[in-house]
Amino acid sequence: MAEIKTSATNGAAHQTANGHGEPVTFLEAIKQAIFEEMERDPAVVLLGEDVGVYGGAFKTSEGLLERFGWERVIDTPISESAIIGAACGMSYLGLRPIAEMQFIDFIACCFNQLTNFVAKGHYLWNAPAPIVVRGPSGGGVHGGPFHSANPEMYFVHTPGLKVVYPSTPYDAKGLLKAAIRDNNPVLFFEHKFLYRRIKEVLPVGDYTVPLGKAIVRREGKHLTIVSYAAMMHTALEAAEALAKEGIEAEVIDLRTLLPLDEETILESVKKTNRCLVVHEDTKTGGIAGEIAAVLCEKAFGYLDGPLMRVTALDTPVPYAPPLEEHFLPNAKKIFAAAKELARY
Amino acid sequence: MKTDLHKDHLRKDKDLTRQQYLDLYYYMRLNRAVEDTMVKLFRQNKIVGGLYSSLGQEAISVGTAYALEKKDWLAPMIRNIGALLVKGVPPRDIFTQHMAKYTSPTLGKDGTSHFGDLDNLHIVSPISMLGDLIPVMTGVAMAGRYLGQKIVSMTWIGDGGSSTGVFHEGLNFAAVQKAPFVLILENNQWAYSTPVKRQVPIENLADRAKAYGIASYIVDGNDVVAVYRTAKEAVDRARAGDGPILIEAKTMRMRGHAQHDPAEYVPKDMFAHWKQRDPIEQYEKFLLEKKLLNAATKKELEEKMEALLNKDRDFAEASPMPPPELAEKGVYCTGDDCHKIAAKWERDKSEVMPPKSNIAAVWKVAGFGAGQGSGGKNAPIHFGDTAAAEEQEDNEAKLSPKAPTKVVRNGAAKTAKVRAGKAQR
Question: What is the value of ipTM here, to two decimals?
Answer without folding.
Answer: 0.94
